[in-house]
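Reader question, answered in our methods column.
A reader sent in the components of a multi-part assembly and asked whether the whole thing could be modeled at once rather than chain by chain. We filled in our standard form and ran it. Here is what they sent:
COMPLEX SIZE: two components
ENTRIES:
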Amino acid sequence: MKTRAVLGSIFASASVLVIGWQAGASAAHSAEALTSTGSTGSTTASTATGSGTASTPSSTTSSSPSSTGSASTGGSTASTTKTYTGNVIDTQWGTVQVEIKVKAGKITDVVALKLTDVGGRSVEISNYAAPILRQEVLAAQSANVAAVGGATYTTDGYLQSVQSAIDKAGL
Amino acid sequence: MTSQTPTRPLRVSAPTPSQRALQFKRRMRLADLLVIAGWTSGAASIALYLGYGGAGQFGTLGAAVTSLGILAGLVGTDLILVMLILAARIPIIDRAVGHDRAMAAHRALGKPALYLILAHVVLLIVGYGIQQGFNPIAETVALWQMPDMPLAFLGFGLLIAVVVTSLVVVRRKFRYEFWYVVHLLSYAAVITALPHQFSIGGLLANGTLQRVYWIALYVLALGSILTFRVIEPIVKSFQHGIRVTSVEAVAPGVANIHLSGRKLKDLDSDGGQFFVWRFWTAKTWWHSHPISLSSVPTDTTARITVRALGNGSTRLGRLPRGTRVTIEGPYGLFTEAARTSPKLAIIAAGIGVTPVRALLEHSRLVPGEATILLRASSEDETYLWDEMYDLAAQRQARLYTSIGKRPSRGRTWLSAHDAQRDVSLRSAFPDIRKSDLYICGPQAWTDQVVAEARAVGLPDHQIHTERFDW
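And here is the structure of the entire assembly that came back:
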């Protein structure tokens, strides 16, 4: 009877671990793709094209029309891209400010001008949270998105700044 | 004396061996499932971390150390919550493995949990330090300034206090009540550690499975403590309104406490189970006593038999009539429900006779099924033996007695005299291999009986013990 409990525990624990590890490995993969495209704009866009992740590069290329053909055709037909700067938001871990790029009534990019940087891990947390927040805002086309775990303050500041920029843009 | 303890009418039929086998199988399946669930929860806490991006965070030395530190904290927290669940006296756990085995598991997890939390603190200080280029002291200062971290450090300190006071060596130096109060701090430790898990740990990011898992585990642990250790006892105590009706000396230092109450049959206690009692007089209310009923209760009366073990129990011999009594329970698997074999063997020593008496009274037995051996080191300690003689006669059970001190040398649980004439478990209980053996007495003595039972080849599921020294 005891053997059954031991074997059962080993089996159940191992399966749970493998599932978690697998899920984590694929999540890590997409997170890597995210950060490489999100943080430093056009210079990494050329490397990101090789990895073949479909949706993320297209949103960045609109701000640098030289790289792909499809984006430049869009630029010639519709209205031009306008930039709106959000308010500076004070948080416990430093100020946060973002600007949004709007084209034809749609948010096409969010650029972090300043992120939380005071105290032990703030920079690290900011670097981790910003690409995720940017992606979520672009997907939702609003500041109404879920907080990033472990980056509560950064999230709050970021989204408030986004909201103020959206207000200015009159979206 | 026997006239004061009316017995419940005999139930009609004893369970058949196949019914017992089925009952045992079910109980073991439940016990195994609980064990599996416990271990899997530890694995799940790791898996969820890996699943939400943790798997990719072992790239650099600093990141790897940090990730290990986070994992240690997660598993440690998981273990602490499992410990709370084990100590919550949840009925299903009590029925599956018994309260004493659940508590043994609880104790066994204490030190590993503390080590994991220690590792969590040390690894994170080192890991963050490496990533920031800070030395550990500067990093500790930096951590201290993060939100909710001072509280988390406080929780860590409390946890150390709880585990250290629970170490056997240290625990002997303090009164039970001191240990108990310090132990209550473990709830404070768990709760003060919570905010930093929300704000910095990021366990609770919206819409993740991780959030669901941790909230569920916290609710389960704290909720079952609240339900089964606070609310249920209060409700039951009010419902049954138990009071002391009389205290009757049985022998020097031993007394029967007669109680009255309402609807006591609804307590649904099996013979051999115990309650945790609290007697509300100015001098006794702050002690609680784990004591089994010494006879099956009627709907309005019950009886316990107490021997003076500590300061608290001494005063119980002088409880005034009408004293209000509150209860927690019933607990324990020292009952008929744990039977697995066709025959019943009972060995009790000293005050250990009390649950055995209730067990015998409550059991459905066929003539000749039960054999009983009572031990006392002197004639003065033959508490309730007259009642046992009557019960044994009524149930057509064999009853042996062994009076006298154990020999100063040698390892035996019998009196020196009986040991000398080669009495043994085998000779007293010829059918021992086909029996369930119920043992109740002092711990060291119990250990010797168990050792002999194992030596004659009795499997663990046929050995049932109840300890009284915790």
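What stands out: Chain B touches chain A through 47 residues (CB under 8 Å). DSSP finds 15 helices and eleven strands in chain B.
Send us your own complexes using the same form.
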